[in-house]
Design goal:
Layout: H1 11-14, E1 39-42, H2 44-49, H3 55-65, H4 67-85, H5 96-125, H6 127-146, H7 151-179, H8 185-194, H9 196-210, H10 218-240, H11 247-252, H12 256-274, E2 285-288, H13 295-305, H14 307-339, H15 346-370, H16 373-397, H17 402-429, H18 436-464, H19 468-492, H20 501-504, E3 510-512
Antiparallel strand pairs: 1-2, 2-3
Helix pairs in contact: 3-7, 3-10, 4-5, 4-9, 4-10, 4-14, 5-6, 5-7, 5-14, 5-18, 6-7, 6-10, 7-17, 7-18, 8-15, 8-17, 9-10, 9-15, 13-14, 14-17, 14-18, 14-19, 15-16, 15-17, 16-17, 16-19, 17-18, 18-19
């Protein structure tokens, strides 16, 4: 790994890009839609970062993070039930390759579109409003998918389901990082994003029951699977009602009193829970409040002020998107095509690799806060890529069966899952607060469009041929992209561990340097 630098001339080596001096933001940013607000000084970020872990933080994690369990449940279920829906008598005239190819690509296309649309609204109208709306869109579209009677209906609502989940990625990742103390941010973000795979385990096991024709008819079981996802989502929505708006968003957008009141209430709750007085917060910043910021300012901030961070973000998302969207939607087809596994049994195998995926962020997450972002991001991407090359070689030789193939994928995805989760963490913390949701949306959309739309289409086409060398080619493409992203991270990853978000990327609205550092001492502990 390259050593860290001491000055601006060596920013490429250190991964620490710096924008203009904070004083240059004195005037409202040209092109912003609400630059006539007041100039205020606040210690809200420092107060949030110095909080100890509490029941309030658990409420944030449960209310926002559990939706990934629901997403994993649905996506995995679709991959596992593809073979059953394609069978005569399912009530829907589609082929398995159309489900794992066209429907999967439409789901991802919807997610990309939804991320951009809702990401812009999230930065403009707040995190809380949008993470309620996006969940409602997601649940409605899932319910309509269960009622599919023609392929066009199924494809349409797969797109709209993706549209909702794309908005979730933008709204939730921005909210989580702004509410979680800096010293916990890495591990919490990774585990929350990795919880997708708890849903994947549930989806795999659920598909075994739902595909059992002795329990449910062919045309009923798969529909009930989607319906169950809706029920679970409604429970999540009830919990989510209690998750507050981000105080960081509030004080920048002219709701400074609300932000101070919210943080004061949280501090009071935590002091009552811990039975001790919280230490004084260290660090204040002065910002010029504004209602919103235009697209032009966001684009210039991301690509002109932080070009290396933009390259890093795009690389991480493209690598993980191709690997995950291709394999998530296509692993069941590999088992049935090459190893003769019955469509009703693929769930057992997928549950195993899903467990490996969840254990990665769970066991490695704390290292992203201790060892550091650059080492961990680059190593997880590179390790998963190298191991996937090895899996491709063994598969090409005919050395694998369904069990050993699953074991290989479990090891690959143990590291890949931690790396993929760190892509969301990276983008959500290395750009200014005013652009956070839109930056997440943009890189998710572009990276996922490049890897997530082409991945399922290419992978479905290669695996349905039944030719081993075609599937090996798909493996090699995924491994190459993961390794390339790992190399980019080795040089460009930002040392964001245990640092305040305002320290990592100066807010566009900030009008003067922080009074005593934006990262409180507790945040560095």
């Amino acid at each position: 790994m390259p050593g860290s630098a001491a000055g601006p001339a060596d920013e490429a080596a250190s991964g620490q890009e710096r924008g203009p001096a904070p004083g240059k933001a004195d005037a409202p940013v040209p092109g912003g839609d609400g630059g006539s607000g007041d100039t205020v000084t606040t210690d809200v970020p420092a107060r949030l970062d110095r909080l100890p872990w509490s029941r309030w933080h658990w409420m944030i994690v449960i209310g926002l993070g559990t939706v990934w369990i629901l997403d994993g449940l649905e996506v995995t279920t679709v991959g596992n039930i593809a073979g059953r829906i394609a069978e005569p008598g399912s009530g829907l005239s589609v082929t398995a390759s159309q489900i794992t190819g066209i429907a999967a690509a439409l789901y991802v296309a919807g997610a990309c579109s939804g991320a951009l649309f809702f990401g812009w609204l999230t930065d403009r109208y707040g995190r809380k409003k949008l993470f309620m709306i996006t969940l409602a869109v997601y649940l409605s579209a899932t319910a309509m998918t269960a009622l599919s009677f023609q392929p066009w209906w199924f494809f349409t609502f797969r797109f709209l389901t993706g549209f909702g989940i794309g908005g979730e990625y933008a709204a939730i990742n921005s909210a989580i990082d702004e509410l979680i103390p800096s010293r916990f941010r890495g591990r919490v973000d990774l585990i929350i994003n990795g919880s997708y795979w708890l849903g994947a385990i549930g989806g795999s096991l659920l598909s075994i029951v739902m595909l059992n024709t002795s329990i449910f008819p062919k045309d009923v079981g798969w529909r009930l699977t989607f319906a169950l996802g809706v029920v679970l989502g409604l429970v999540i929505m009830l919990v989510r009602r209690h998750v507050p708006e981000s105080p960081r968003w509030q004080f920048i957008h002219g709701y400074g009193d609300e932000a101070n009141g919210l943080v004061a209430d949280v501090e009071k709750q935590i002091e009552g829970e811990k039975h001790e007085k919280l230490p004084e917060a260290a660090g204040r910043i002065t910002i010029h409040q504004r209602a919103s910021i235009g697209f032009g300012i966001i684009a210039r901030t991301v690509f002109t002020r932080y070009p290396r961070r933009a390259v890093l973000s795009l690389s991480l998302f493209v690598g993980q998107a191709f690997l995950y969207n291709a394999i998530t939607f296509g692993f069941g087809n590999i088992l049935t095509t090459f190893f003769g596994v019955g469509t009703g049994d693929t769930g057992y195998y997928f549950a195993v690799i899903a467990a490996g995926n969840f254990l990665g962020p769970l066991l490695l997450g704390h290292l992203f806060d201790t060892v550091g972002r650059r080492v961990m991001i680059s190593s997880t991407y590179l390790l998963s890529g190298v191991l996937l090359f090895g899996t491709a070689w063994l598969f090409d030789r005919g050395s694998l069966n369904a069990t050993t193939m699953t074991a290989c994928w479990s090891v690959v995805l143990f590291f890949a899952s931690a790396g993929a989760s760190s892509a969301y963490l990276t983008v959500s913390e290395i750009f200014p607060m005013e652009t956070r949701a839109m930056a997440i949306a943009f890189f998710y959309a572009i990276g996922t469009a490049a890897g997530g739309i082409s991945g399922p289409l290419v992978f479905a086409d290669l695996t349905k041929s039944g030719v081993v060398s075609d599937t090996v080619t798909a493996f090699v493409i995924g491994a190459s992209l993961m390794c390339a992203a790992g190399l980019v991270a080795a040089f460009l990853a930002v040392k964001a561990e245990r640092r305040s978000l305002e320290d990592i990327a100066t807010p566009l609205s900030q009008t003067s340097p922080p009074s005593s550092g934006t990262t409180p001492a507790a945040g560095r502990a």
